[in-house]
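Quick illustration for those who missed Monday's session on complexes.
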Amino acid sequence: MDKIKSLTGMLDLYDDGDKTNLPAKLFYLEKKIRDIFKGYKLNEIRTPILEDTNLFIRSVGGASDIVNKEIYSFNDRNDKGIALRPEGTASVVRAIIEKKLDQSNHKLWYMGPMWRYERPQKGRYRQFNQAGVEILGIPEGMPEFEMISIVCSIISEFKLQNCTIKINHLGAQKNKELFCNALVKYLEPFKESLDEKDRQRLEKNPLRVLDSKNNETQDILRDAPSIKEFIDSSSIDLLKSIQNNFSDICNIEIDYSLVRGLDYYSGFVFEAVSSELGAQDSFLGGGRYDQLCAKLGGKDLPSIGMAIGLERFAELIELKDSLVKVVSFLNVTGNLEPKAYKIAHQLRSLNKNIILDVHLSEGSLKAKLRKANKNNSDYAIIIGDDELKNNTAVIKPLKNELEEQITVSLGDLYSFFKSI
Ligand code: HAM
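Prediction with histidyl-adenosine monophosphate bound:
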């Protein structure tokens, strides 16, 4: 019979114990990032993965790539337009409005899968995971510093090399619009020289032309107006102040051509990129979205946030061998012996810091020892028919060649296990 395969661009994340594989790194990352978020006194929020499609049309923007061609949407049995969330910010704001919490401040974090119908390639999936932070209810100022502090803490925690945090300021909504008009006016005469993709961007979402990967477009853009000419000096001061304050911790660069692919941004925006990632080099992005809450029917709630692409971030880290000791428990009695299993259960309660890997399948002692070595075990505890009869066990050191294998009483086995 034909086998059913997973959908294109959607990964099964199975940690088989190999620390160089993506799932092991991803799971580790999730745990560590959660701890960092908690250290900033952020509260967790979990929103549904399905939302009304209109939520994303109104927030991320009908002309954005995400809504235009990447959204996973379908009609449910009631003919209602439903979308798998392509990002987390819109859902968080929707939830805050729905709970009538849009008149106070919130510092929130979330983690989970997102969906975008993109052409899969290295670092770009159709289902991927994000860890995000949203600080709601506080105008420009301190939250910008808090946000970059979180980014720097994460980059430092994992000792990432070769990465840069790019920052820019899109001004208030009106500055952004004036700049956008000036850019369109400048680009119109070059329309015929742009490729199909950039021509479409010019029509639907002109700021995105600045993101073009086409060299000819980048040549044309060299003399284009810059956002720098359209924003207030206080915005430029903020960028410089953030750069100065964090430059001893992270590499921060002011990039006036940085625009973000989602419509809701105005004011401070940022992205972290790594030269180790290839074409999809951005592993984190965010910015201020002061108008979004009102646009979704709530109060004016000045806000800022960011999201980390966990699969891309995982590419950048290396896992060290854990300091926690692993002991393999090998039952090599002829038959299934519940008494042997009971010893294993007893051991667990004596030392919670040890990982006890009970080998459940049948097999020869040799095969089990091979597996114990592969599992990176420090010791093997072996119980065969003789040991069971005599109430003893064999302790075999697997890493320290100077230590000899010994047979001990069960009492001594428990004492040994407690002392590791
Ligand atoms: P975003 O830049 O669209 O921002 O996505 C954030 C990160 O998610 C990207 O930097 C990238 O690492 C990762 N990412 C995006 N698409 C894919 C994909 N197809 N495969 C793998 N990774 C991907 C947002 O989503 C905003 N909600 C961030 C934000 C929060 N702004 C304010 N608050």
